[in-house]
Amino acid sequence: MDQTVRGMYCLRCSSKQVVRGSIGESARFYPLRGFLKAILGKPVFIKDEHSHACLDCGLVWNELDTASLKENIRTFG
Ligand SMILES: [Zn+2]
């Protein structure tokens, strides 16, 4: 039983042992800001259907809408 994703490599260790998964429905990304801005700024929601994890090094990665991220950074700095 091989659940690894064909053609997918880990961004950090280049392992091919990558599996799909989920990090939860309310996953959010907060662009790095100063402390106050981090509280006031809104997060960008992550697309849950694109979660991956590396079986060898533990790196987890995901994907979000780049237009939403750019707009978020423009708005909240
Ligand atoms: Zn890895």
Task: Describe the 3D structure.
This protein has helices at 35-40, 66-76, and strands at residues 18-21, 28-29, 44-54, 60-64. It is an alpha+beta fold and 77 residues long. A hairpin with a 5-residue loop joins strand 3 and strand 4. The mean pLDDT is 85. Residues 10, 12-13, 15, 54, 56-57, 59 line the site of zinc ion.
Q: How far is the first residue's CA from the last residue's CA?
A: 46 Å
Principal-axes shape call: elongated
Helix content: 10-25%
Order of helices and strands: EEHEEH
The value of Rg in angstroms is: 15 Å
Number of helices, where a helix is a run of at least 4 consecutive DSSP H or I residues: 2
Helix- and strand-based class? alpha+beta
Bound molecules: zinc ion
Count of domain modules: 1
Largest sheet: 4 strands, antiparallel
Overall pLDDT level: 85
- State the total count of DSSP E strands: 4
Proportion of beta-strand residues: 25-35%
* Low-confidence runs: none
Task: Present the secondary structure layout.
Layout: E1 18-21, E2 28-29, H1 35-40, E3 44-54, E4 60-64, H2 66-76
Bound molecules: zinc ion.
Keywords:
77 residues; elongated; single chain; alpha+beta
In short:
The chain has helices at 35-40, 66-76; strands at residues 18-21, 28-29, 44-54, 60-64.
